[in-house]
Design goal:
Blueprint: H1 4-28, H2 32-38, H3 41-46, H4 56-62
Protein name: DUF1127 domain-containing protein
Region (Disordered): 43-63
Length: 63
């Protein structure tokens, strides 16, 4: 059976996760230039590479 402390611990985890997701969503809605300035990793992932086909797409089409 759950005790009070384990329930409050789970509630705290949910709140932390909810806050983290809210911040992540807010940062992902910023313009790409601002995301790059603050070092947001998703901004680097969305940057185009050297050509229209790069990385996994290029390897898949050349096989």
């Amino acid at each position: 059976m759950f005790g009070y402390s384990s329930i409050t611990r789970q509630i705290r985890k949910w709140r932390v996760e909810r806050d983290r997701i809210a911040i992540e969503n807010m940062l992902s809605e910023l313009p790409l230039e601002l995301q790059k300035d603050i070092g947001w990793p998703a901004a680097r992932a969305r940057q185009p590479r050297n050509g229209p086909l790069s990385g996994m797409q290029a390897r898949a089409t050349r096989m």
